[in-house]
Design goal:
By secondary structure, the protein is α/β, with parallel strands linked by helices. It contains 16 helices and eight strands. Strands 3, 4, 5, 6, 7 and 8 form a six-stranded mixed sheet that branches. Strands 1-2 form a two-stranded antiparallel sheet. A hairpin with a 2-residue loop joins strand 4 and strand 5.
Length: 515
């Protein structure tokens, strides 16, 4: 899609040369190449246009002066560039990003906030809001456009590069017909799901909400110092529960303490409901705005809704000493989409989060990704993943490779009928059949290449996500991943362009010497 909107070009101050720092020089070259790729692809204009269309749809029938000004277009461009930059930084914490944008002339130049007289970088709150500036569908559209333009086969002579290149400046367009798939667990940002700890979370969340309501002018009778007393009591019970494991009669002690926690939880529930009804029935009785009151009410309702399940689960596990099915487990009050994923790996027998599927081509470009809300076997994901990859790249997948988790004879047979020319390099579950497959040199080479996909997953999780996701909710983590996948592919493409440039320089130097 080509946007009908265009940003008015501006004059950006030139970057000051920095010498004798190879690491900075490489990093700067990568950002300058990413900037050139974004300009050549037209993604800046496209994304700004999409943001403007979204804003106009959100205010139908009303005139919005911000839409009609160049200010909104600039703001959208800055939001787009800043969120692309965040995964490339050493820290994704918004405070660190804020300081980096205020201090680094390179980052200011890349994000279009550089100026001659003064710099006005976005605040940490604005940087955080930028994450939601674009919808997931718009980010997916940008993801597909970038892939398809990287693979564009049509070449033309570029005066600047002095060579025949495609639209993004590549001598050799990316081959997206070969895909390596693998899955991992994207862990949720939760503590280890111990049953009785869920009840302590209930007490703390409800009492903090009650304390907030009382602070803003609405009070109902409570014993002692109010919420502080209940927080002190639940902390004491939590310490006792933790220490009970060291006692000889630990099991009996744990049951006794859990009964005390349950009793305290029910008292807390009553106080929370009274304060909740007081806030809902008298919204003008406090100095809270309607929006702030709605947030507090939603927080209380969400916890109260899950409270019966949390009590039942703790009772079944500790007092009843009965197992709870994985499908019925409540793992977190705040991340309800968290699932139990049995990996069976050393150090990660069981993980808590959501399954992430990645597909990459030979160069390391991510061609497809999916963060699932439900736990499904890898072989159940394969067919749709291949079809979605074809839609993303605009070309058929002619080679697919994966571990034995993706092996499913019925699915693979159906996929072969859809595309007879496709090479199936998925490892068979049968040892005898797998040994037969290893007799094929091409299959064996594909399986060796699969180790790089394992590394790609590590790069996405440990480098671009700084080890863990701080986003709350499945939709928020998907949006965070959308930005990460775009930044990752831009960096891979930039490094490919740099490598081609270095090869071209070496080739010309060799020709000059030969001539």
């Amino acid at each position: 899609m080509q946007s009908q909107f265009s940003i008015q070009p501006e004059f950006r101050p030139a970057l000051v040369p920095v010498v004798s720092c190879a690491n900075y020089a490489r990093y700067r070259e990568e950002l300058e190449t990413i900037d050139d790729i974004l300009v050549r692809s037209g993604l800046d204009d496209i994304m700004v246009g999409l943001a403007l269309e979204k804003r106009r749809r959100s205010i139908p029938g009303k005139k919005d002066r911000l839409c009609d000004s160049n200010r909104f277009l600039r703001h959208s461009l800055v939001a787009w560039r800043v969120r692309l930059l965040v995964p490339l930084l050493d820290s994704s914490a918004v405070r660190d990003v804020e300081k980096s944008l205020a201090d680094s002339s390179l980052h200011q130049w890349f994000c279009h906030i550089s100026s001659f007289d003064r710099i006005t970088p976005p605040s940490k709150s604005t940087i955080d809001r930028y994450k939601n500036w674009y919808d997931a569908e718009q980010l997916q559209e940008a993801f597909e456009i970038l892939l398809q333009k990287a693979a564009a086969a049509e070449l033309h002579y570029d005066v600047v590069m002095e060579d025949a290149v495609n639209i993004l400046g590549f001598e050799m367009p990316s081959d997206l017909s070969e895909v390596w798939f693998d899955t991992t667990c994207l862990k949720s940002n939760i503590h280890f799901p111990v049953d009785w700890v869920l009840l302590t979370d209930v007490v703390r969340t409800l009492m903090k909400a009650v304390a907030l309501i009382r602070k803003h002018g609405l009070r109902n009778r409570m014993p002692g110092k109010g919420p502080e007393d209940f927080l002190r009591r639940i902390n004491r019970l939590s310490i006792d529960m933790s220490n009970s494991r060291r006692r000889k009669d630990g099991k009996k002690k744990r049951k006794k303490i859990l009964r005390q926690i349950k009793g305290l939880t029910k008292i807390v529930e009553k106080h929370a409901r009274k304060h909740r009804d007081l806030l809902e029935g008298n919204p003008d009785g406090s100095d809270l705005s309607r929006a702030q009151a709605a947030v507090i009410l939603s927080r209380i309702d969400g916890v109260l809704e899950k409270l019966p399940q949390a009590i039942k689960q703790a009772h079944e596990r500790i007092i009843g000493e009965r197992r709870v099915a994985a499908a019925d487990k409540l793992l977190s009050l705040y991340e309800p989409e968290t699932r139990v994923i049995v990996r069976g790996k050393s150090g990660a027998e069981v993980e808590f989060g959501n399954k992430l599927l990645l597909g990459e081509n030979r160069e390391g470009l991510i061609t497809h990704w999916e963060l699932g809300g439900e736990v499904r076997n890898d072989d159940k994901l394969l067919a749709e993943a291949i079809r979605q990859t074809s839609r993303n790249t605009g070309a058929p997948v002619l080679l697919v490779c994966g571990d034995r988790g993706f092996s499913n004879r019925k699915t693979q047979s159906e996929l072969s009928e859809e595309e007879p020319a496709r090479k199936d390099h998925i490892a068979a579950k049968s040892v005898a059949e797998f040994e037969t497959q290893l007799g094929d040199d091409e299959f064996r080479a594909s399986q060796r290449r699969r180790a790089q996909t394992e590394g790609r997953i590590g790069i996405v999780k440990n480098v671009f996500m700084s080890g863990r996701s701080l986003s709350k909710g499945l939709d928020s983590r998907r949006r965070e991943l959308s930005w990460i996948m775009l930044s990752h592919n831009l960096l891979v493409l930039a490094r490919k362009r740099i490598a081609e440039r270095e090869t071209r320089a070496e080739r010309r130097e060799a020709l000059d010497k030969a001539g």
